[in-house]
């Protein structure tokens, strides 16, 4: 497979910006809840007050998750469009189209992403319940967590690559989402997905502990863990691609030095024969 050009410095800068947006949306948007339902109160551990800055997030987990979904949709729609531009540039599909065609293509992408998120949310919801998510009085909590995870894992991939179809020509096109990542752009799509799932799994750990802290309210910790995992996965993909590029440059320099040494040796041999 031909090497796909990918601007790693630009990716690092934009992923850093995205990381700030993800963390900021989760932390700052829930602080708007008191404008609609009144001032929040600490939900547990009254004898050990928490930081007032955290109370709007921990006192009403459902409201926090709703704000979180709003922020994730905005961030992932922007990030998916950015990734799609990189993908189109890498496969040399930057065609000039009229406004109507571009608008129709954008609407098709949004529809595909929305349907994919809904379908994936159902699958993740069943998986969360199977793995032990509380089902007595936390159906909405689990549903919002499932939608949060599906937005982080599915939206950028579907908006970039589209939904595979049986009518795609060639095995490569049909199974492009299931093979191992081979290019920097593919690693930038796959590694955050892995990081999101691992982060959500690790984020569940604090919930059953007997600390009796407000931030242990379900599903706040797996949500935070998934966001941090997504961010870590993106930077891990950058590190992996940067190291591979460095190794390739070193290898090319070594090959150039070897070829240069051979040329010098041949010239010496020719001169020695003449003399």
From TrEMBL:
Pfam families: PIG-F
Keyword Transmembrane helix: yes
Transmembrane regions listed in the UniProt entry: 62-80, 113-133, 145-167, 188-207, 227-247
Membrane topology field: Multi-pass membrane protein
Keywords tagged on the record: Endoplasmic reticulum, GPI-anchor biosynthesis, Membrane, Transmembrane, Transmembrane helix
Cell location: Endoplasmic reticulum membrane
Pathway(s) per entry: Glycolipid biosynthesis; glycosylphosphatidylinositol-anchor biosynthesis
Keyword hit for Ribonucleoprotein: no
Protein origin, superkingdom: Eukaryota
Major place of residence: endoplasmic reticulum
Protein name, as recorded: Phosphatidylinositol glycan, class F
Organism from which the protein derives: Kwoniella shivajii
